[in-house]
Amino acid sequence: MEKEKENGEIFLFTKIHINEIENPLPGYIIFLEGLSIFSFDETVQLSEKEISDYIYVSGLSICINNIRTYLTNTTSSYPFGKYQLPAIDVGELHKDKAKIEKKKSKK
User: Fold this and answer.
1) What crossing angle do the helices spanning 90-106 and 60-75 adopt, rounded to 10°?
2) Of 6, 34, 78, 94, which is most buried with the most CB atoms under 10 A?
3) SS3 category, 22
4) Among 38, 84, 91, 34, CA closest to 63
């Protein structure tokens, strides 16, 4: 997940990798990217923390749900049948990403 800001719009890039290992089991190998664009009503006063919370919790949940729907619809006509992305705990996802970033910064 990445965020960029331009002209009051916030771009949220979401990537999902499924079964990308050296010797994958039979089934789907999926790399999927999504882009969502969010903006806020300029008449509403929001702090940077509130905007960040909306984007990183609600916005990310919206992105994941859109990817889930797209993935299910796309795979429904293929030999392995429709793939349904399991539920994702956004809070846990943020913790995991923070741990990865912390390890990267120590190197």
Assistant:
1) 100
2) 34
3) coil
4) 34
| CA 90/CA 96 separation, integer angstroms | 10
- The answer to whether 68 and 56 have CB atoms below 8 angstroms apart is no
Q: What's the pLDDT at 5?
A: 63
Low-confidence ranges of the chain (pLDDT < 70): 1-6, 107
**Cβ–Cβ contacts within 10 Å for residue 64, how many?**
20
* In the block, residue with structure tokens 């749900």: 65
Q: What are residue 2's phi and psi, to 5 degrees?
A: -135, 155
Triad 91, 94, 97: Cα angle to 5°: 150
Please give the structure tokens belonging to residue 8.
């009051």
Q: What is the pTM for the complete model shown? A: 0.77
